[in-house]
Amino acid sequence: MQTSNAAIFPVMVMKTFWSRLLLVVFLSVFLIVQAGCEMAGTTTETEPADKADTLGPIDTLLVGPTWQFVAFEETDGDTAEVRPQCKRLREWSWPTPPFFHSANFQTTPADSARTHSEGGCFSSQSEFRCMRVYGERNEAFLTYQLDMENSVGGGALGIQFQVHTAVNVPDDSKEPEFFDALEAATRYNVDGDRLRVSYGEGKALLFADAETFCNE
Questions:
Q1: How far apart are CA 204 and CA 131, in angstroms?
Q2: pLDDT score of 110
Q3: Do 128 and 162 contact (CB within 8 A), yes or no?
Q4: Residue 32 and residue 20: Cα distance in Å, rounded?
Q5: Which of 26, 89, 136, 203 has the highest Cβ tally under 10 A?
Q6: What is the mean pLDDT of each run of 10 residues along the chain (216 residues)?
Q7: Is 177 among the domain residues?
Q8: In a domain, 50, yes or no
Q9: How much is the pLDDT for 11?
Q10: Does one domain contain both 102 and 198?
């Protein structure tokens, strides 16, 4: 028995219709998914700018210098000098070894460089910046934050320790007290080549710019 061409033609038309319909549906779904991915990508790209807004200001008088720790200032105004001063940690294999009891405030955001060689401070706190401190035997990586309302040269200051080496120090070393005072910091003031970091009840750490102080 033979099937006429007239009977076959409607079947072919129906198959072609459904094939085209499925193709249209597939393309529509693909375009919708692609548009969604592009929108998600746009949202992700705006996040760094929003994160940057959480960083505190940069004080050009505070960052840059190596601050040599000079003395503890007590509540009654008396000071106790810390020794040694302007002495470098010779056992460090750096081209220019750092000073004993010194601090350096950096502009590097805490979460932008995660390794030692990149100047990182081992923190994911996007609202803090990096800080390097040396004691009598140990090196510490810290983060610090300035208040948005600070004026240049002084204002509120917050410091947090992230990680530090753990080399034993002499019993009479001031390094533990120095580190503890830094972590308790509440305010700072820069006056010329001098830095005063307040902590506790009326106490302060007194620093001097090592470049001038150690070459006097």
A1: 18
A2: 79
A3: no
A4: 18
A5: 136
A6: 48 51 54 48 37 70 95 94 84 70 90 56 76 92 88 92 90 94 97 96 96 87
A7: yes
A8: no
A9: 42
A10: yes
What's the token pair of residue 196? 């005063």
Do residue 102 and residue 18 come from a single domain? no
Q: Domain span at residue 28?
A: 5-45
How high is the pLDDT of residue 83?
83
Q: d(Cα 136, Cα 82) in Å, to the nearest integer?
A: 10
* Residue 20 pLDDT: 59
Cβ-based neighbour number of residue 127 at 10 Å: 16
The pLDDT, as a whole number, for residue 134 is: 93
The secondary structure of 40-59 as a DSSP string is: HHHHHHTHHHHHHTTS----
Which residue, 80, 68, 63, 59, is CA-closest to 203?
80
- CB neighbours (10 Å) of residue 142? 27
Q: What is the count of structural domains for the chain?
A: 2
Residue 39, pLDDT score:
41
